# Entry
Amino acid sequence: MSGAPQGRDADAAELRLFAEAERATARAYAPYSGYAVGAALVAESGRAYLGVNVENASYPAGLCAERAALAAAVAAGERRPRTVAVAAGSGADCLPCGVCLQALAEFGDVDVVARTGGAVRVLRLRALLAAPFAAAGGEWSAAGGPSHRDGEDAG
Ligand SMILES: [Zn+2]
# Structure
């Protein structure tokens, strides 16, 4: 594990969310890497939003499953993601990439449910990304999000 955050065991609801992410991997579009990923994100409303990785012949144009789920949630009007599960179709360990951690941090701290060290664990986003980029500096605020989000609540 080389010093990676350990997190805690997933509860029953988190395991169900992880299973949704695993099922979503069947719809991933990953013809180049063959590495299917699914994500299931629960927002403040309690609704869940799914995402899959969507690769592209122009590799940088590809999109990760977590950001696809985040975009679906935001498009539905959500602004407070609470929990995001991410799963690889292979069943291998799979934590969000740095770009996805940053994208999620825009909306505050969340629980990340993922297989790591062979077990489904729950890790806080801020433990995975200690210093997110923010216009006012990379500090997490007491409110739970990067400092530039203080006092802002999209409506
Ligand atoms: Zn990613």
